# Entry
Amino acid sequence: MICVLIYCLLHFSSNKKDENVTQVFHNLGQMFQSTLVVAEHNNDKLTPITLNAITAASKLGGEVSCLVAGTNCAKVVEEISKVHGVKKVLVAQHDSYKGGLPEELTPLILQTQKQFNFTHICAGASAFGKNLLPRVAAKLDVAPVSDIIEIKSPDTFVRTIYAGNALSTVKCNEPIKVFTVRGTSFEAASTEGGSAASEEVAAASPTGISEWLEQTLTKSDRPELTSAKVVVSGGRGLKSGENFQLLYDLADKLNAAVGASRAAVDAGYVPNDMQVGQTGKIVAPELYIAVGISGAIQHLAGMKDSKTIVAINKDPEAPIFQVADYGLVADLFKVSVCSLN
# Structure
């Protein structure tokens, strides 16, 4: 069979243009590719960034499988089996997977990759994925590619560098490609139309390195920052944490999430889980309102993909106006930000 294939390729290459030969090899390569998407979830519901990772995986060609590891995660398995583009859902349930500890998930992923011979392994570039996949790559002795924003081919990826001011095209020659996906750069896969089969996989032996105790979530009536359609963010220009109440009032009127610049976080105005930027959360809402934010490149890297950007700052030379669709040069304390509604 191999001889026939080689003969056909040689015969084809002697009679067709070079670009056609390249396309044949490309198609053949896709036939032997398969991608494992590590699902992020809370044992009850799938985290949205996993849907973006599935879209990215689908662009590689070949089959896409999802690994769901947890405890009593039947709802997540059912949810992901309906996602368009997913061929198979691999399910591993064990008490050690509660909380998604990377120390416990890494051996499982290695074991699963060896069993199914996946050529690519990916996850969303969230705190979960950024903590887990570098460990997997280290164990596989390959170099990971982090926070990709585009896939040019199965071995070529695009990511941002210099706080988003430049793009880097990375060609990965590793036998197994391990990468994380920036959620805002890929559309979420449709949660309808899929009919993936589920298959149980054996749990890896617990490492006993760490133990999940508990997780306490802050309850809020506002949407989650990375998935909100509208985000209102404040910077050091608000001068105090108490003045963030102006933004909270506006956010409640707009059903928006509230974010902050690193300067505001470092000043102690708000907790660090509200930080938007290169070292914080990456957002791309329909509407982003920046109040009292000058626009350091680290902050712009985390929000410049927003569909519409509105900026309020008293400094007309503030960098935030370079990316804003609408700008208001004014002292935020002399205008009623709530009137934006």
